[in-house]
Design a protein that fits this description.
The chain is α/β, with parallel strands linked by helices. It has one domain (3-97). The chain is built from five helices and five strands; from the N terminus they run E-H-E-H-E-E-H-H-E-H. The strands form two sheets. A three-stranded parallel beta sheet has the order 1-3-5.
Length: 98
């Protein structure tokens, strides 16, 4: 089953609250990945995000689930700046796992 996380509903226009990211990670992302389910993180109506927010959201799932996380985490409706932050966190995590 696919889970969709609407970041705007949880974090507002600018995603910066690491506590919100932690809550989403613990309550939604980690359980879904443990069942090998897809997780779609939707950034509709979010103008930006901090790197610390994105790191708090996806670093631990990538560390714990590795290939399952890389295969099942999807991002949609990201601005260019948010997309670059996600790419930075992904690259950092891939390098740290090698």
């Amino acid at each position: 089953m696919k889970r969709v996380v609407k970041i705007h509903d949880l974090a507002g226009d600018f995603a910066e609250n690491k506590d919100v990211a932690r809550q989403v990670r613990i309550e939604t992302i980690m359980p879904a990945l443990s069942r090998n389910a897809e997780v779609v993180i939707d950034f509709s109506s979010v103008s930006g995000a901090t790197q610390s927010f994105v790191h708090a959201l996806i670093a631990e799932p990538i560390r714990e689930f590795r290939e399952v996380a890389f295969a099942n985490l999807y991002f949609k409706n990201t601005t260019e700046s948010v997309k670059k932050i996600i790419e930075t966190v992904y690259k950092y995590m891939q390098e740290s796992l090698e």
